[in-house]
């Protein structure tokens, strides 16, 4: 996998909106979700359900509960393709604001009672749903940033999500003006022009383990498009930025991690 191209690293300069610039970003694009929650868990090795059975249970919960919850804008499951643990699975939800994160859980409980009014039936269904996952999980909350390339329509099949998590640097010689110029060039001339990128979603740390986290999630049609996407990025980056601008990018980040997941269509 080519991880040396600078395309995704370039967008680390978004942090020059300063850490408090989430408010400004929200004003720029008020209709997008403000926060996403990411729950990392693992498949329960003792569970003998098939993939189709698991999908059926989650789809039923999606239709009867999640889609009816006004505090949840969207949700999705992402399973391991190239990550550190083969049993890893992410559950991602997007929310309109910070207050909605807490309210979403309470609303889920109400909707569960409406969907399965019989208490025993409700408990049985939820037990079956939870049995797919291990008891361990971790949670992170990220704030969304402007500049996303939204998906056109809904997923019609399983897709591939490439997640790049950069560790941000906070250079004293950085500036908002420098950030705005580089950001505009990268978004308009790389992300939006790369035909292999079907969707792009940037976010930064809001609550969790590491305040330096800067995430860039990219959806592609197939795993084979990953190398093609990198190659196309390299071409577009050379056209978009000068050599000096490319050097400037390096001061805004300190390393990154690469993760590839299957974006599951329920």
Tally the helices.
Answer: 8
Rg computed from alpha carbons, rounded to a whole number of angstroms: 20 Å
Class derived from helix and strand content: alpha+beta
Q: Which percent bin holds the helix content? A: 25-40%
**For the terminal residues, how far apart are their CA atoms?**
28 Å
Biggest sheet: strand arrangement: 1-3-2-8-5-7-6-4
Major beta-sheet overview: 8 strands, antiparallel, barrel
Tell me what portion of residues adopts beta-strand conformation: 25-35%
- General shape: elongated
- Count the E strands: 8
Whole-number average pLDDT? 88
Order of helices and strands: HHEHEEHHEEHEEHHE
- The low-confidence parts are 1-30
